[in-house]
């Protein structure tokens, strides 16, 4: 019994899992620069002015009733993470524009808009971009500090001016509304583009 006890104590105190196995694997990412896997210049720099221009164009198309054109304008100019000029703020601004367009499209028009984009030349890639934004939006919606914004309430004042302020509890309400919209679009994208769309998005190194 004493031998077993001594052996157990010695085993518990031994630091036997100190070897970095990744160093022994030739295919491990620690043995080569993963940035070399990306084609040089494949992700262009996008400025805030570029995002504002896309936002203005999308809003103009929405006002004219062209929901498909508004969504297409956003998807044709995705802002990918290139580790450089495409900062988190620029990519978040692009996400806000996409979410704004998605929220402006009626539920009854979702399938028709998606089908028109998917059936057009290069439409499959555009729908994949949309799926990337949907996943990014879902991740942001779970974090209140980065959740997609929704329009605030305009409160009339006795002075004749209006004060813009969110409703009590509007943060949680808007977050839930945004998540509901994103989930509805996710369902429609899978319905139109199939499950392969999810696989392509998950394996693509480009992140919006």
Can you give a write-up of this model?
This protein has helices spanning 2-13, 48-63, 67-75, 88-104, 110-118, 123-141, 170-193, 196-203; strands at 153-156, 162-165. By secondary structure, the chain is mainly alpha-helical. The termini are far apart. The radius of gyration is 24 Å and the shape is globular. 55% of the residues lie in helices and 4% in strands. It is built from eight helices and two strands. Helix 3 (67-75) runs antiparallel to helix 4 (88-104), helix 5 crosses helix 6 and helix 6 runs antiparallel to helix 7. A two-stranded antiparallel ribbon has the order 1-2.
Average the pLDDT over all residues and give the rounded result: 79
Tally of DSSP helical segments: 8
Strand segment count: 2
Q: In angstroms, what is the radius of gyration?
A: 24 Å
Structural class: mainly alpha
Shape, principal axes of CA atoms: globular
Portion in beta strands:
under 5%
Unreliable spans: 150-170
Largest sheet: 2 strands, antiparallel
What percentage of residues falls in helices of 4 or more residues? 40-55%
N-C termini distance: 61 Å
| Major β-sheet strand ordering | 1-2
SSE order, as H and E? HHHHHHEEHH
């Amino acid at each position: 019994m004493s031998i077993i006890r001594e052996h157990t104590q010695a085993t518990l105190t031994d630091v036997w899992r100190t070897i970095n196995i990744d160093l022994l694997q030739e295919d491990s990412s620690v043995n080569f620069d993963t940035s070399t896997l990306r084609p040089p210049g494949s992700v262009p720099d996008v400025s805030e002015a570029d995002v504002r221009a896309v936002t203005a164009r999308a809003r103009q198309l929405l006002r004219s009733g062209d929901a498909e054109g508004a969504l297409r304008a956003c998807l044709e100019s995705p802002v990918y993470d290139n580790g450089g000029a495409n900062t988190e703020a620029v990519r978040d601004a692009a996400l806000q524009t996409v979410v704004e367009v998605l929220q402006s499209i009626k539920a009854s028009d979702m399938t028709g808009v998606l089908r028109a984009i998917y059936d057009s030349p290069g439409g499959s890639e555009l729908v994949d971009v949309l799926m990337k934004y949907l996943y990014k939006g879902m991740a942001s919606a779970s974090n209140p500090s980065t959740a997609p914004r929704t329009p605030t309430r305009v409160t009339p004042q006795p002075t004749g001016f209006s004060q813009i302020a969110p409703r009590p509890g509007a943060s949680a309400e808007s977050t839930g509304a945004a998540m509901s919209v994103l989930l509805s679009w996710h369902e429609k994208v899978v319905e139109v583009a199939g499950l392969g769309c999810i696989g392509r998005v998950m394996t693509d190194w480009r992140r919006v």
